[in-house]
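Incident review: delayed structure delivery

Summary: a single-chain prediction request sat in the queue longer than the usual turnaround. Root cause was a stuck worker, restarted by the on-call engineer. No data loss occurred. The affected request and its eventual output are reproduced below so the record is complete for anyone auditing the incident later.

Affected input:
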Amino acid sequence: MVTGHTVRLGLLGYLLAVTICPAATNAEAPLDAATARALDAAIAGDHRSDANKARDRYRHPKETLAFFGFRSDMTVVEVWPGGGWYTEILAPALKDKGKLYAAQYGINPPFAYQRQYFGTFMVKLGTDPEPYRAVSVTSLDFPYELELAPRASADMVLTFRNVHNWLGEGYGADSARLGFVAMFDALKPGGILGIVDHRWPDPDNEDPLAENGYVSEDRVIRAAEEAGFEFAGRSDVNRNPKDTHDHPQGVWTLPPTLALGEQDRDRYLEIGESDRFTLKFVKPVGE
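Output delivered after worker restart:
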């Protein structure tokens, strides 16, 4: 929970500077010492599996959160945390001074993998409760369960590799709009929205349903701005130039899914995880 008028003004000043100055769009916000220590401890923690830690080199959690302006005293919403890869980092980093709302799929999501992830997530929170004592589980379940957290309560909303899902047919044609409005409503004025997703390089020829898992930056920026957000910058921290974006099973061809099994496995391991954009937005003051 960010405390103090001065801290909020300082954060807004940084965001405005990033928005105005194109040269600053790839700059990371400096982490305060307490936040840096909290993130280092969470990332190295014994509560994380070796398999999850092995993905740090692709997902760059500390650098990504630094770019978004994360602080360990914030109220944060993580939208659709799935099995909880990022929750394992966010929750311990926030447990002493902050708060985390985990806005899951809801108890009856339409896809089997989501039910599996939801079950895994709840077992994680119950099996080792200490790292997760600052977590409250909420829902984003289209079209009716849209309260991610108490209205205008969050300093930051984060979602990782989820927006492309809202563009498909499984949730209804209005899901992307509803998702961005829900994130907007959860944030305080001046609050930050951070999005990471699989990057489609050319908005002129992307799949309108994002069935390959990729979505263009332009499309996401447009959707966020239509909901009222202001674009505040982008980072290349999760870019992967080895990704050719043309795989037979879309992004799921690549690790960690490796949808083709042993077929061309070494080739896809060499590419690594997908090329991803990292975008930051701000809810305007006065909204």
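Verification: The CA atoms of residues 149 and 196 lie 20 Å apart.
Action items: add queue-age alerting; document worker restart procedure.
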